Amino acid sequence: MTTTAPPGGRPGRTRRRRTGQDRPLDARATHGNRPPWRPPLLPTLLVGLALLVATVLVCVTIGPADIAVADVARSIAGHLGLGPAAGADGGVPVLTDAIVWELRLPRVLTGAAVGAGLALAGAVMQSLTRNPLADPYLLGLSSGASLGAVAVLVVGVGLLLPVAAFAGALAALVATLSLARVGGVLTPGRAVLAGLAVSQLAAAGTSFVIFWSATGDSYREILNWLLGSLAGSTWQSVAIAAGALVLVGTVLVASAVRLDAFAFGDTAAAALGIHVDRTRWVLMTLVALLTGAMVAVSGSIGFVGLVLPHAVSALTGPAHRRLLPVAAVVGAIFLVWADTGARTLFDPRELPVGIVTALIGVPVFAVLLRRGRGSAWT
């Protein structure tokens, strides 16, 4: 911007010379500054839920035994009292009903609940810590759960595995938050560092237990659990994962406004009337409870809680009122299909689903990182 004295003008008076920065924005530039269009929340959720129902029905049919979608629907209807029972006139054969109701459906529903819970927990952790690399296992929960699970598997008390894994996750949470609180308030940076320390300690304990005590087939069972697997899911697994998702997930979704405030920093959140330290404690504890329940029934399944919140935010935007429920639905669909691939692609051998999620998650995360927008990625 330059100034010149006008011809014949009074001394001291200047005339502004127009530059490119002084010109008004053209229509294209103005349009480029508009916020991107986002689909309405309710239709998006309804479409997602319809896809989830279709995914469940279709994935139950996939396997060595050829089962039609209609047979799956009739089997479910019979157990819910909405149709004839298995083996009765009009009902599905008893063997087909057993495959659907006792084997495949509990596994698919457990996968849906675990996928939804991990995606939801990951989105909340990324907001609380303001760290785009945060995931549900950031506070050492996975390593703590692994230590508890490996301990009971080595002893040979597999029935207590969900309880031991959940107890290990809670113990890791208490240790992480207690360490982060030493000498000051709980901050995102201190929580991350404390979680890293506790995670390494629990991982060392797990390695020691395996090295000292594991023998024979217990090695394969332990490795299968550490890599994440939905094999052996039962209706008890469905109850644990779905119950935690409904109880804890509802509270997390209801905290969307508080999570939006955390995105602007602790000072801004406090100015909006939020008790920052207490709220972070409560929400991190809820995330830990949710994650502990998921890890207890599936082992440590990576990349679901890390990648999906970023992928979904490209559709919904950063507002947690939209992000959290959509991420939960997408996480459920994703993990069900990933587990279906894990159990069928190399039939009769079965991969731990954690391997499949990593094979998919790493390239997707690389693409998201390449296209990363804003200061959150820098």
Structure commentary:
The structure is a single chain. The protein is mainly α and 378 residues long. Mean pLDDT is 83; it is low at 1-6 and 8-32. It has a two-stranded antiparallel sheet with strand order 1-2. α9 runs antiparallel to α12 (276-298). It is globular, with a radius of gyration of 26 Å. It is built from 15 helices and 2 strands. It has helices at 27-32, 41-61, 69-79, 94-129, 141-155, 161-181, 188-213, 218-226, 235-254, 256-262, 266-271, 276-298, 304-316, 320-344, 353-370; strands at residues 3-4, 15-16.
| Total count of strands | 2
Gyration radius from CA atoms, angstroms: 26 Å
Low-confidence stretches: 1-6, 8-32
Please identify the structural class as seen in this structure.
mainly alpha
- Helical segment count: 15
Task: Please describe the structure with a list of short key phrases separated by commas or semicolons.
15 helices, 2 strands, disordered N terminus, 378 residues, 68% helix, mainly alpha, two-stranded antiparallel sheet
